[in-house]
Amino acid sequence: MEIYFWAFVVGGLICVIGQLMLDVAMLTPSHVMSTLVVSGAVLGGFGLYEPLIEFAGAGATVPITSFGNSLLHGALTEAERTGLVGILTGIFEVTSAGISSAIIFGFLASLLFKSKG
Amino acid sequence: MSEKAKKKLTPAQQEYQDFAQAREPKRSVLFNCVKAFFVGGSICLLGQFIQDFFIWNFDFTEKTAGNPTVAVLILLSVILTSAGLYDHFGQWAGAGTAVPVTGFANSIASAAIEHRTEGYVLGVGSNMFKLAGSVIVFGVFAAFVIALIKTTLAMLGGS
Amino acid sequence: MLQGHQTWVFKNRPVIVATGTVAGPFEGEGPLARDFDLLHDDLWLGQESYEKAERKMLEEACEQATSKAGIQKDDVQFFLSGDLVNQITPSSFAARTLAVPYLGMFGACSTSMESLALGSLIVNSGSAQRVMCAAVSHNATVEKQFRYPTEYGGQKPPTAQWTVTGAGVALLSAQGEGPRTTAATIGRVIDMGISDPFNMGSAMAPAAVDTITAHFRDLNIDAGYYDLIATGDLGRVGHGIARDLLKKHGIKIPDDRFTDCGILIYSEEQPVIAGGSGCGCSAVVTYGHLLNRMKKGELQRILVVATGALLSPLSYQQKDSIPCIAHAVTIEIDH
User: Fold this and answer.
1) Strand runs labelled E in chain C
2) What ipTM was assigned to the predicted interfaces of this complex?
């Protein structure tokens, strides 16, 4: 039960960080997302993101920061098995679901829908 | 970036910008943060429910349930984008809808739908990543650099 | 004839014998809806793309103007038109349909008065009997080209404006009855270093002030000459800044005589943030609403100062600021 509370709070707080980047730092949405994704990878590098996921569940896996962490983990896991070249072969392993579904559903949407202005 | 730009301003320009800024409506930062917190938190909470649904009803573990969860959230986001509703939520919730993976999906779907008028290859295909491209590029590059550093350190430490 | 540094006085007083105004769903829900000839409730106008819809609106507005004047398109010597789309293709394609000798204009959102000023010069000098001056904009084509895909959930700041979906056409003639253009001031490019495309009002206000100042100086008049001075699309934010900037420069325009087309076209309840913008904004409000008020006898002399932000999506990405311009035209009616 506790995880539901923390999923809400941690997810909300990461979004607040994003909002502050938009409103105070006056960054564009693309800049904000790119910064968050890199932050996720950096935190993952320091071994801080996995504990956050244990603690907050979807509050850490749903924000885009998790994408950076997953990219890093894919690379590291594969590198452990096959050495440095594993960094290149493993990067998209964990994030495949996210990217594939975004492309597939996005393309389907363009087949079926017109924009509404 | 904005610091660099400010340095190149003439005194007259700086004076005008201060004059204008004093008269522009300020962004309600606190209210925006509150909205972002609640909407972002709710989307993550929804994600948690979806994840648990997959764990309880299918053969997923906590580690692997993340994938279908993300896929479902992406699907929901694409549906809302296609229905012309996501942009209204986004205007209200700001980072609350942009930061979760739903924002990523919306940026791809909205670009795909918009450029359908230029055909599927040159329009949809080429423009789909207009907004999401930088996220993927920087995410991958950051992961590459960090993984390279960590793996090299591990190798040096090991040997 | 040139008067002062940058103002033309039209001694022969070309007549706006007819106008055509076409607008979209948002404008149809606004307070000026009844001043427009045609309203569409579909942003696509039944076309295959937003760009084709923009072209269609312009063609319809031209048709409205010529049929109201009781003439054929062949009776028009020149067609001056512009819009915000890359290479002003909606105007060029409409010109293809019209088959009238064509001069493409680009002044961003100042195009309406840019084309009206040049058209008046042409008619006044006896270089044409009739000239059609037009400007058109479409909300979706502008969002797609300059900002984000229309279904994108990005959050716009409180200084952002809403591009008007509208086409406004004025048919100028050497003879006839109607409001007349009597003077025009061509603006200089003014750049105060603002680079935020979601804050055009602040970027354009100095250009409006510069042109108004030049206009009064060249003609040796003050605001008292006019019943109304309307800026094109400064919106609620830019208009307030312009008003204060004018006061700072010692130019007094009474508040009840100073307005903005971007503020007039939408009601407070409509979700348009800081107000309307786009070439079509000043065109439809001037040729529809303001000229109607003149014909009803409510206004005798007005000055329309259309303002434009001359940026491109690329210039913004290359960290350039937004250069702006404003063109002013005096319209008078005899009673």
Assistant:
1) 2-3, 7-9, 15-23, 38-39, 78-82, 102-104, 130-137, 162-163, 166-173, 180-185, 228-231, 258-260, 276-277, 301-309, 324-332
2) 0.93
